[in-house]
Amino acid sequence: PSPICSTSVTSAKIQVNGVHLHYQQTGEGSHAVLLLPGMLGSGQTDFGPQLKSMNKQLFTIVAWDPRGYGQSIPPSRDFPPDFFERDAKDAVDLMQALKFKKFSLLGWSDGGITALIAAAKYPTLIHKLVVWGANASVTQEDVRIYNGIRDVSKWSEKVKKPLEEMYGHDYFAKTCEAWVDGICHFAEKSDGNICQQLLPDIKCPTFIIHGEKDPLVPQAHAEYIHKHIKGSR
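Request: output the structure for the sequence above.
Response:
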């Protein structure tokens, strides 16, 4: 293939589960990888460097915008109690619609939670799993942290700018508040459970990364996930 072709990034939409999901695809390697963005994120905002620099001979890379995020609007984003399961099914069905038989998941933040659920629920489809900044439950301490980011006007300019450019101020502000409400609902359960019971079902090789200075997800979450996914590193 010409070098032009091998490094270009395709941007397209495909209908999955009644919504038109936007994704970007690049590379022509035999190992297919789906990149799953975090809260309010999209393929472009969260994975620009990976789309540009991951090895395109080894990998076929797909970065998606979950429904209601990025360019997968409409619909507007909402947060029913099963929003993570819904994203997991959308993600897996997207990759199947793109004709990938087996693929790996690289997810960060909410995308990490989505990836954990997908790997547990669709074990025959998932090759390998990498998550960072993910959590399997919501504690009262987490609720305090989340409420600290509810008001987007208090966010740093650097983090806020690309999201305001993508969504416009109103949608961005409204969706962030809705996310805080949605994620805090998990803390109302006695164990704050999001997907703890699914972790033992994850059979694929799993790599967990965590930033010591992660302002949103305390490190205990990463340690819990590591402890409960057999053989994870």
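The helical segments are 3-7, 43-53, 83-97, 110-121, 140-147, 157-167, 169-184, 219-228.
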